[in-house]
Specification:
The protein has 17 helices and 4 strands. The protein is mainly α. A two-stranded antiparallel sheet has the order 1-2. A two-stranded antiparallel ribbon has the order 3-4. The two termini are 27 Å apart.
């Protein structure tokens, strides 16, 4: 197995995501850093910090020069960051020492790498958000269409009360909707970093804040208004949201693992995974991936909880490099698999309805106890229904039938009620459709 299943040749169809993976390639990282370096030089040239002609030259060159990522390996191994080796390689490739001397003027490695990460995250989060919006549309359609399709609600693995398939789609959908809202709120806050070696910006020029604001505008990122070298709130929020995306997918995944069981079979997925020895098997691969990704993301996110010490913290920063790509890829894959699973979903409506009234029909116990409580104190009503439920089990007779025989005047008209389930389903469908497009634009790093 590859060190990471996300880019494994064997597992790339199971866990991999080529579209997102390109944003976390070495080539994309270098390209993003070069975009930052070029925009910084052009900004400083316009503001008179460096010669304007050099700023324009460097900005153009950063769009044209090609750097081999492998050529930076020795430098990164020695220096712990890629910018020193990258800047050295760029200066050599420029073959224009009069301009090359102004490259990376006054900034520090973390400024360039963090800003480059924000560029890539902007694209990545827009992709994830778009996928989740697709899933929301499918969930809204299902919730509305199946709002009154009877289905047993389950608690603690037991049949509980009658509900609807649409209400379950809403239960899957609300966490997805919240994740979309959180992604939409985070993307505009992805901020440029430009603070210099110790966060003071002292070598950037007479007005470092103006340079930072202009660089933010040039890159289409937010201006944080301060140094965030050691304040990693944006990274921890990213981790929390990526984990939330996977947990939203895992809610559907966990329920699908139960409801597609061969002894339940209330839901089916169009085609399942094959067994090496059991020809009858249709294993729920997609739902299993959703659950596994949530477990992975929740564990990985915990590594980012420690505060960064001093003005800059190498160990904390390195930890982000180990964790962030996997978190984003997990969220993106989860969003993709969720959408695919919903597109394949096939409910057995007759089977779901039959389960509600299947002997001994104990799912009606709550409604029966409340109906009986109109004739006697509620504790006594609950005890009586519990007694009759035991008899229904032993005799394999429907509980409503036994209660009706014991209390012939009892009003049993609400046994078939789905309560608020249809309304819940339709409320979610309305909310999901109000989300809108929500997709953002990013810089092309390919």
């Amino acid at each position: 197995m590859s060190a990471s299943p996300f880019d494994s040749a064997i597992h790339r169809q199971l866990f991999g995501d080529a579209e997102l993976g390109r944003l976390f390639s070495d080539t994309a990282e270098i390209r993003a850093m070069m975009l930052v370096l070029g925009a910084l030089a052009k900004t400083q040239g316009k503001l008179g910090v460096i010669p304007e002609v050099s700023g324009a030259f460097l900005a153009r060159a950063m769009m044209e020069i090609q750097i081999d990522p492998a050529g930076l390996a020795d430098s990164v191994g020695q220096n712990g960051v890629s910018v020193p080796g990258l800047v050295a390689a760029l200066r050599k490739a420029l073959e224009a020492p009069e301009h090359a001397a102004w490259l990376h003027w006054g900034a520090t490695s973390q400024d360039i790498q963090d800003s480059a990460l924000m560029l890539r995250l902007r694209q990545a989060l827009a992709l994830i958000e778009a996928r989740l919006i697709t899933s929301l549309g499918r969930l809204a359609d299902l919730a509305e269409a199946e709002a009154e399709t009877p289905m047993a609600a389950r608690t603690y693995g037991q049949l509980a009360v009658p509900s609807s398939l649409g209400a379950m789609m809403a239960a899957w959908g609300w966490p997805v909707l919240r994740a979309v809202e959180r992604l939409g709120a985070l993307r505009p806050r992805l901020a440029v970093s430009l603070s210099g070696a110790g966060g003071t910006g002292s070598m950037l020029g007479e007005d470092p804040a103006a340079i930072r604001a202009a660089l933010a505008e040039a890159l289409g990122l937010a201006d944080p208004g301060r140094s965030w070298h050691a304040d990693r709130t944006i990274i921890t929020e990213l981790a929390e949201i990526c984990a939330a995306v996977t947990v939203a997918g895992a809610k559907a995944g966990e329920d699908l693992l139960l409801l597609t069981r061969s002894d339940v079979a209330e839901l089916r997925l169009g085609g399942g995974g094959a067994s090496s020895t059991m020809p009858q098997k249709e294993n729920p691969i997609g739902p299993s991936v959703l659950v596994a990704l949530a477990r992975f993301a929740s564990a990985q996110g915990a590594a980012l909880g420690a505060a960064h010490r001093e003005a800059r913290d190498g160990a904390g920063w390195f930890t982000e490099w180990l964790v962030v790509p996997g978190l984003v890829l997990a969220a993106g894959k989860s969003a993709s698999v969720l959408g695919d699973s919903l597109a394949q979903l096939a409910p057995d409506r007759a089977g779901m309805a039959a389960r509600i009234d299947a002997r001994p029909a104990l799912i009606h116990a709550e409604a029966l106890s409340f109906a009986l409580a109109r004739q006697m104190p509620r504790p006594e009503a609950q005890a009586e229904v519990k007694r009759l439920a035991g008899e229904a089990r032993r005799a394999n007779r429907p509980l409503p039938e036994l209660v009706g025989e014991a209390y012939p005047d009892l009003d049993l008209s609400r046994l078939a009620s789905l309560g608020q389930a249809p309304a819940e389903a339709r409320a979610f469908a309305r909310a999901a459709r109000q989300i809108g497009d929500g997709q953002g634009q990013g810089v092309n790093l390919d």
